[in-house]
Write a structure and sequence with these properties.
The chain is α/β, with parallel strands linked by helices and 569 residues long. It has 4 domains: 85 residues, no CATH class; 102 residues, no CATH class; 163 residues, P-loop containing nucleotide triphosphate hydrolases (Rossmann fold, 3-Layer(aba) Sandwich); 160 residues, 3-Layer(aba) Sandwich (Rossmann fold), CATH 3.40.50. The chain has 18 helices and 25 strands. InterPro entries: Helicase/UvrB_N, Helicase_ATP-bd, Helicase_C-like, P-loop_NTPase. This is Type III restriction enzyme, res subunit. It holds the Pfam family Helicase_C. Keywords: ATP-binding, DNA-binding, Nucleotide-binding.
Length: 569
């Protein structure tokens, strides 16, 4: 998207996506005939500001002088100044508009301003917004630029020069792909291209308004009673949200402890104070799991739900529930952010998603990370005193977390068609409930599934992995307790609760299973009041440091919960 560099009556240099007289600001007196990228225009503006022309700037400049100065800068930048000429803008008489058209324009403008609040959008996103509003691309551009001219928003280059290189303004990536363009060297960011193009020739529209314009009435009706463990943690969350001296906290919870609901009372308070709230998570299945709980406890409150599969991308409301990819489409929008599963893929280790989350936070905003398996960075921040730590070590049923047991295997665990000595152990586990077997590789799922089907011909045995075309139906049947035994990769390490489930981790010493994955897999066991206990079996040839850490974390949670009187002995 390119802009025309414009000169106003007061001598200020600006820009517009239009050159038609009826679409230009009434203060514009001339514009440069050839459009430029916003990044190029900003270079011209910066050069103008850096000029050591004391006499020039300390007298009222004539229009012609400013025009010549701009053409001189353009020539210095290596462009052919003959390609650029100044076009004068003559005032026009405003033609009275049809009242029907005026009403429609007002309705579109009102809807635009209601749905655009706090957004950071590429031009492609704006065009998608135009389709939802059922208007033309030119109209959405005019609406956006009018908002910019009124000081509600700004245009920024999607990728702009940074030092001797470039930086993407949507995800912060500096390792970008450079290439020659009509306007000199340009750059493309590949880091965030999954949500649309981002190049130095593109622009971002940043709306700088809050999602809420003041205190709001909130009907918060929780359908649950907090346990003592949740009440203590919830009180600390509330203290953190109200404390102006801290901006980051970590809620370290036991798997299945109900950490999300702990945040609901603080979210309700924040909304009542006029503070916007974001619940974010890396995966859409986590989002889809939280949506009905929020709608149940916040009846009638407008909730924006945004994932990659959301049919309606533009919604209104002071509370947003979104995947971390969708959060990149917000800018300085949220006063309070609850970031769930901070250590999960694809958020953990992604600089782009981390940048997007932090820049979606308003000035003096608060961010609370929620996880059962904190990242090394999070724990380091706690140790350095930069992050407040809140603990939730116990589940609602007051039963200790199942501690994994290590079963040493003297043989290779590669799928070879026979499980030998493991038949008896699996049969014993099945007496207690369905068995979930985790394997480290996709290539192991099918062979192990077939092997177990042969060993247990009377059982219902199935398996799945991330790219399995039948995954959704199989997971649905698994939730319905249709299987005796299910083989899976780490796709089921989070976000699933199965009553009575028993867990076996084959090749627990494999590098793909770090301590966080092992804790999460173990955390599938004993989550329900009906089946608060169970067994977790780590099967491997050796004990790794990750396995030791996972066991230590679980034991520490149990120890803390016992000391606080939150679980039974």
């Amino acid at each position: 998207m390119n802009f025309f560099l414009t000169l106003n009556k007061n001598g200020n240099v600006s820009f517009s996506p239009f050159r038609e007289r009826d679409k230009l600001n009434t203060s514009v007196i001339s514009y440069l005939s050839t459009p430029l990228s916003l990044a190029n225009i900003q270079v011209v503006q910066e050069r103008l500001q850096r000029r050591d022309l004391f006499a020039f700037w300390h007298k009222v400049p004539k229009q012609k002088d400013t025009q010549l100065e701009i053409l001189k800068i353009i020539k210095e930048l290596g462009w052919d100044a003959q390609d650029f000429t100044w076009k004068e803008v003559c005032p026009i008489l405003k033609i009275s508009q049809n009242p029907v058209d005026e009403t429609r324009d007002h309705e579109v403008w009102t809807t635009f301003n209601r749905l655009i609040l706090g957004r950071q959008l590429s031009y492609g996103d704006l065009r998608g917004f135009a389709r939802e509003l059922k208007i033309k691309d030119e109209e959405i551009t005019k609406l956006a630029h009018t908002s910019v001219e009124q000081g509600f928003a700004e245009w920024v280059p999607a990728v702009r020069p940074h030092g001797s290189g470039w930086q993407c303004q949507r995800c912060g990536e500096k390792d970008v792909e450079e290439w020659p363009s009509l306007y000199g060297m340009a750059a493309t960011c590949r880091s965030c291209e999954s949500i649309g193009s981002s190049t130095s020739l593109d622009v971002l529209y940043r709306d700088q308004r809050s999602l809420l314009d003041g205190p709001t009435e909130v009907r918060f009706q929780p359908h649950w009673v907090l346990t003592e463990a949740q009440r203590l943690a919830g009180q600390q969350v509330f203290e953190f949200i109200k404390d102006a001296s801290e901006d980051t906290a970590l809620l370290w919870a036991a798997c299945g402890a109900g950490k999300t609901e702990v945040c609901f009372p603080s979210a309700a308070w924040a909304l009542e104070q006029g503070k916007s709230v974001l619940f974010a998570a890396p995966r859409q299945d986590v989002i889809n799991d939280v949506v009905p709980r929020l709608r149940r406890d916040f009846p009638d409150y407008p909730l924006q739900v945004l994932t990659g599969t959301s049919l309606v991308k533009f919604q209104s409301g002071g509370m947003v529930l979104a995947t971390t990819h969708q959060v990149s489409r917000f800018w300085r929008a949220f006063d309070v952010v609850f970031m769930d599963e901070m250590d999960a893929f694809p958020y953990h280790g992604s600089r782009a998603l981390e940048w997007g989350l932090k820049h979606a936070l308003r000035q003096n905003g608060k961010i609370l990370y929620l996880t059962a398996t904190p990242s090394p960075e999070g724990l380091k921040g706690v140790q350095q005193g930069k992050i407040r730590l809140i603990r939730l070590p116990a589940r609602h049923h007051r039963t200790a977390l199942p501690v994994p047991i290590w079963e040493r295997s003297r043989h290779s665990l590669e799928p070879n068609g026979c499980i030998g000595l493991w038949t008896t152990q699996i049969e014993r586990l099945r007496v207690l409930g369905p068995v979930l077997v985790f394997v480290p590789k996709i290539s192991w799922v099918d062979p192990w599934t077939k092997c177990l089907q042969r060993c247990f011909p009377d059982w219902s045995v199935e398996g799945s992995y991330s790219s399995d075309p039948g995954r959704s139906m199989k997971i649905k049947r698994l939730r319905q307790c249709k299987y005796d035994l299910f083989v899976s990769t780490t796709i089921l390490e989070r976000g699933i609760t199965l009553s009575g489930i028993q867990v076996v981790v084959l090749a627990a010493d494999h590098p793909v299973f770090d301590e966080r994955a092992l804790v999460q897999m173990a955390g599938r066991v004993g989550r329900t009041r009906e089946s608060p206990a169970g067994n977790v079996l780590f099967v491997s040839k050796r004990m790794t440091s990750a396995m030791k850490t996972a066991v230590r974390w679980i034991e520490e949670q149990n120890k803390l919960a016992l000391e606080l009187g939150l679980i039974e002995t």
